[in-house]
What does this fold into?
Amino acid sequence: MADPLLRVTDLQKSFGGLTATDHASFTVETGTITGLIGPNGAGKSTLFNLISGFLAPDAGTVQIAGRDLTGAAPAEVAAAGCIRTFQTPRPLAGMTVREALLIGRQQQVGEAPVALFRMPAAVTATERENIDAVETIASEFAIDHLLDAPATDLSGGQLKLVELARAMLARPRLLLLDEPVAGVNPTLRNTLAAHIERLHAEGVTCCIIEHDMEFIMRLADPIIVLDRGRVLMEGTPAAVRSDPRVIDAYLGGG
Ligand code: ADP
Ligand code: MG
It folds into this structure.
């Protein structure tokens, strides 16, 4: 059998005396939209931080497409095809949407100062490509009319759309989305769901943390339930919905 796209084994992370990730093990199979749910404070975002290199685990391993990326830097994880979005989109003060999207392009030649002197033609060609890629992605996500707007003028929902578009500029195989519709109005929530379904149909494997049960049950299969840093269960939306342990975790937990 082929390796799963993501395999997390016995992952551990504590903050002082608090165990945020407790022997967590699960896989995300290629081609799935895998949901990751659990009460507030269950350790969902911490897991994404551990996988994407924003935090180093105390123990356990992270493998992407069979490659060990435990403790790797975010850029290395991104280069392996795994891109994440943030629960709270990062502030983009002083930037237009176009500039905010340009950040999504990985490995920009012009970032290495020496390249500016040694190969100005290559820099110009790459910059042109990046600008073109931003315009293409903006039209795919129907946000082209926002490109010249200050990023600070966007609504919460529009910011989530820009985050998703920006993640796609890196051409990921595996997208980790942390609460992509939190605080988003119902219309934009449907738009985001449709975009995620489109990306999935185009071959992107997704792992989605989401609090909105209707949203996650509609999009994801399987769904992994996390409680107090541990994997409580994994199953189809129907199995998760009717599992008494899941109901207990939500009533008793955060
Ligand atoms: P979730 O995303 O499921 O709501 P988190 O992963 O954000 O949960 O947090 C899990 C637990 O770890 C929480 O109790 C949270 O307060 C704690 N935590 C998360 N990140 C940090 C950090 N950088 N420092 C200290 N505690 C943290
Ligand atoms: Mg979270």
